[in-house]
């Protein structure tokens, strides 16, 4: 393992924004990780864990600590439907493998950027699927004890777009591998506007959609809704979808009568008070934010939740824009929106 100094981090994120890391190391195995953690302890340095950099906004000043770029690889099938995957593997490559093996569980999470480790940290969610529903356990490195531990699904405290790894308690864990259990039989979730529109436009009946076809459909939809990373910098959807109670939903319907909403089970251990998930993008479009540009930062013209870097935006530019949007939503709806993107 080689520990470098003053490494520009913008090149390691899809936002293409950010200053330098004081120290930087690529982690390929447990030995690398243990050595890096010991180095950080000896030099009293905070640790920053970097996966694919696709859900991250780094400050213009950079970070005064040790950044660990996790590149732990490996895909091991323990059985026909159970697989252990290194935290540094590309997420969508795993989804492709499971679909190729005709296994259900991850197909609706197709074309989400990032790594396997990050998918668990964020509990990624899309088109009604959450990664938590396919996670059996997570192998982690405890930076306090320097020991490897196994956390069960329950111990990961998964809720909507959240896990233990986002908490103070969870900061002592660095994900090494994830144990997934898939299903040999399943029912495809086609009950989404984008999917239904695709079926209608291509004269397809739901009964004729295979697992592979479902992935093909989602790849087409997402590629046409997301920015081209060769043209823009972005971290995808910047905001979480708000979860509100029935009273707030009723008030929102007065503001936006045609706004759809989704009743969800948010669990008993969540700080999110409510039972209705609101499509924030619908409101932002109604409020005129879609396609908005503020200097080098802006909102993507095809998706009002996506903040983009037009080429030379700074982290400060992005934060200023996000603050304007949050203030506007608060003033018009009373809702405090939360950011999805991690900020260093």
Question: How would you describe what is shown here?
Answer:
With 344 residues, the chain is α+β, with helices and mostly antiparallel strands. It has four domains: 68 residues, Uridine Diphospho-n-acetylenolpyruvylglucosamine Reductase, domain 2 (2-Layer Sandwich); 107 residues, Uridine Diphospho-n-acetylenolpyruvylglucosamine Reductase, domain 3, CATH 3.30.465; 33 residues, no CATH class; 102 residues, Uridine Diphospho-n-acetylenolpyruvylglucosamine Reductase, domain 1. Helix content is 26%, strand content 25%. The protein is built from eight helices and 20 strands. It has a five-stranded antiparallel sheet with strand order 6-7-12-10-11. It has a four-stranded mixed sheet with strand order 1-2-5-3, with helices on one face. Strand 18 and strand 19 form a beta hairpin. The longest helix has 19 residues. The protein starts with a strand and ends with a strand. About 2% of the residues have low confidence.
- Overall mean pLDDT stands at 93
Distance between the termini: 24 Å
Beta-strand content estimate: 15-25%
In terms of structural class, how would the helical and strand content be classed? alpha+beta
CATH architecture of the largest domain: 2-Layer Sandwich
> Over all CA atoms, what is the radius of gyration?
20 Å
Count of DSSP-assigned helices: 8
The tally of structural domains comes to 4
| Backbone shape | globular
Q: Biggest β-sheet: count, sense, barrel?
A: 5 strands, antiparallel
| CATH fold title of the largest domain | Uridine Diphospho-n-acetylenolpyruvylglucosamine Reductase, domain 3
CATH class assignment of the largest domain? Alpha Beta
Please bin the fraction of helical residues: 25-40%
Strands in their spatial order, largest beta sheet:
6-7-12-10-11
């Amino acid at each position: 393992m080689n520990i470098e100094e003053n490494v520009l981090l913008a090149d390691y994120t899809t936002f293409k924004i950010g200053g330098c890391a004081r120290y930087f190391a690529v982690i390929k195995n447990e030995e690398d990780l243990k050595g890096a953690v010991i180095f950080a302890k000896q030099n009293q340095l905070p640790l920053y864990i970097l996966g694919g950099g696709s859900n991250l906004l780094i400050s213009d000043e950079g970070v005064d600590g040790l950044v660990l770029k996790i590149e732990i690889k490996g895909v091991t099938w323990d059985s026909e439907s159970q697989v252990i995957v290194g935290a540094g593997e590309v997420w969508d490559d795993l989804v492709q493998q499971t679909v190729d093996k005709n296994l259900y569980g991850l197909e609706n999470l197709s074309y989400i950027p990032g790594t396997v480790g990050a998918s668990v940290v964020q509990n990624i969610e899309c088109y009604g699927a959450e990664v938590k529903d396919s996670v059996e356990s997570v192998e982690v490195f405890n930076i306090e004890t320097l020991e490897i531990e196994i956390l069960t699904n329950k111990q990961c405290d998964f809720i909507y777009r959240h896990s233990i790894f986002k908490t103070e308690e969870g900061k002592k864990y660095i994900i090494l591998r994830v144990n997934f259990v898939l299903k040999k039989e399943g029912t495809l979730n086609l009950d989404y506007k984008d999917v239904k529109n695709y079926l209608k436009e291509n004269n397809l009946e739901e009964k004729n959609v295979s697992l592979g076809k479902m992935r093909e459909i989602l790849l087409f939809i997402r590629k046409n809704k997301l920015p081209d990373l060769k043209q823009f910098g972005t971290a995808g959807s910047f905001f979480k979808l708000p979860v509100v109670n029935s009273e707030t939903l009723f008030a929102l319907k007065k503001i936006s009568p045609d706004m759809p909403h989704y009743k969800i089970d948010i669990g008993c251990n969540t700080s999110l008070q409510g039972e209705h998930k609101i499509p924030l993008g619908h409101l932002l479009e109604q409020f005129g934010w879609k396609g908005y540009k503020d200097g080098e930062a802006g909102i993507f013209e095809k998706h009002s939740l996506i903040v983009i870097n037009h080429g030379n935006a700074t982290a400060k530019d992005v934060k200023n824009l996000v603050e304007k949007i949050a203030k506007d939503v608060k003033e018009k709806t009373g809702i405090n929106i939360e950011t999805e993107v991690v900020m260093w």
